[in-house]
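Morning run. Coffee first, then this:
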Amino acid sequence: MAIVTNKEETKTITKEELENLREIQLQTKNIIIELGEIQVMKFQLENRENNSKELFNKLIKQEEIFTKSLLEKYGTIEINPETGEINKDV
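And here it is:
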């Protein structure tokens, strides 16, 4: 009695098609990595921007306090920021 097997041949794509598939997958992976790196850069820039805004707001407050103290001490004046010379003819 003969044994009958129902073995089908394994079908594969051509070598060229496989190379094309792998190239597309590699490019997709690289783009995903690139997009991730861009998101990290955006996050870092947003943090830098927020830190700069916070520092800028602190400097504005510091300037307001300093200006008020000069106004109380000298009255309305102009100051030469290079020399510190006061001009009261304002």
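Residues 16-87 form one domain. Good start to the day.
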